[in-house]
Amino acid sequence: MTIQDESAAPKYTRPTIWQLAAPSIASNLMFSMVAMVQTKFVGSMGAPAVAAVGAGQRVFFALQALLMAIGVGTTALVARSWGAGQREEASRITSASLMFGGLVGLVLMIFGMLFSHQIAEVFGLDENAAQLASRNIFWLAAFIIGFAIDIILSSALRAAGNAWTPLLFGLAVNLVNLPLLYAFILGNWGAPRMGAAGAPFASGLSFILCGAVLVFLWMRQKLTIKFYPGDIFKKARYQRLLHIGYPVALEQLVLQFGFFLFMSLIGHYYGTEAFAAYNVGVNMLNAAMVVGSGFSIAGATLVGQHLGAGDVEGAARSGWRACSMAVGAMSLIGFLIVLNASVLARFFLGSDEIAVQRTTEFTYIMAAMLPLLGVDMAIGGSLRGAGDTRFPLMTSFLGLIGVRCALAATFAMFHLPVVWVYSSIIGDYMLKGSMLIWRFKSGHWKHALSKRLLAA
User: Taking burial as the number of CB atoms within 10 A of a residue's CB, which of 3, 37, 91, 383 is the most buried?
Assistant: First the structure.
């Protein structure tokens, strides 16, 4: 099967940063809004339920680490192939990545479902919250194949310059997810009342249903990246995916270990209300963080495509532009949220005064950190798009473990107020942002993928 004669490929005009970032931002904002609705539904059930959802989400992000690594490898390789006009190779990479991601997702599903209770106990929550968290982890793991489909196919499409199909996919997921949240969290329309566990169940089911439709369209050749079933077992292709992906997997494991440690310190030393405040505060600031994610995706795609076309200077310009846009947009959104922090906290948590106070304090600190996070996301994404995935691994380890967790543990052991523990996040991103800017200015990322790997 031949998708296209590459020698006769039409001239490809690369999209702008905004053309890539805007659909990604819109898609992520929709997910953020659904997460806020989910938090509102669960928030009415009290701090233990909110804490359980937060713990479940953190475990889910940990389970996704390997899938995200495959997605980053897919982005870098598809973008570089697409920029070089090699459409058929981009399709082969996508097919191989999806098969690999499906196998990894199956292993993660079994692990998460079998050990959900043991994992939930790590966070130091009270018995009620730990039981709720265990159920959340179980259902998140059960549907992880649907998330694998989204991560890999969406990564491939964005790397080819098509950010609109992932946006439509996200819209479909949210349209399915919202009524399912209403049904399964609250027990409406004849559905069982699952409480906090209804949130991951509804989300997972919506991803499975919509993911099946996306795979069907891909196999029917309806997407920008075509289905190519032949020659997907070539060893060199997997070597390139692993070369780019394994540092990302390690970085994600470091991140999730650090987040586990950080949240466990909050849970053990400061209680369920402070733990719940962290989760609600993160959800309140999701609007800013998803904007940064959109610029990260745009930077990764354009850096990879420019390098594939041999335009090194164009790759550098794309990275810096993505960074400046991310920092500006995230700073503005953070400022607007800070102005309404206490009102938003009360909206999600009701009359729980301790949780509201902790959430407001955390929101102020997170907003101060957002410009630094914008650097981390945009420049980190640009480096990964170039295949330079080892340096972000090092910055994540030093920032999260060496600064955030070390400071948080020190503050907790001296029984300082929880706001001190929250503030350790700023030190984390100050170090990471400085290191990433230095790396991008150095230009080492321009040759991160060796000629041997590219020719293989």
Answer: 91
